Amino acid sequence: MDRITPLAAMRSVLQAWQEAQPNLTPPCGRWAIQTRDGGDVIGGLAIRLLPPYDEDLELS
Questions:
Q1: Residue 28 has pLDDT above 90, yes or no
Q2: Measured between alpha carbons, how far is 24 from 37 in angstroms, rounded to an integer?
Q3: Which candidate, 15, 24, 32, 43, has a CA 20 to 30 Å from the CA of 7?
C-alpha cells in the first residue's frame, strides 16, 4: 500500500479496516502502528491469507 495522505484519507482507511476486522479469520487482520509517546499513527500491519489455497500467510 502506498503512503496515504491527507490525514482524513488515512482515517477513512483505518475506519474501513476496523469495520472489516470481525469478518476476517484469525490470525488475519489489520492494525495501525502508533508511537508510544504521542499515539501518532506511523504505519500499518496486515496479516492475510495467500492464494491459491489460502494456507499460507502474508505479513505486509
A1: yes
A2: 30
A3: 24
**With 90 as the cut, is the pLDDT of residue 3 above it?**
no
Scan for cell 496515504, then name that residue. 4
Q: Which three cell numbers stand for residue 33?
A: 502502528
| N residues, the chain | 60
> Phi then psi for 9, rounded to 5 degrees?
-65, -40
Cell of 19: 469495520
Strand order in the sheet with 56-59: 29-34, 41-50, 56-59
C-alpha 44: how far from chain center: 5
- Tell me which residue of 41, 45, 42, 19 sits closest to 30, measured CA to CA: 45
Q: What's residue 12's pLDDT?
A: 87
10, exposed or middle or buried, with CB in 10 Å at 0-12, 13-18, 19+?
middle
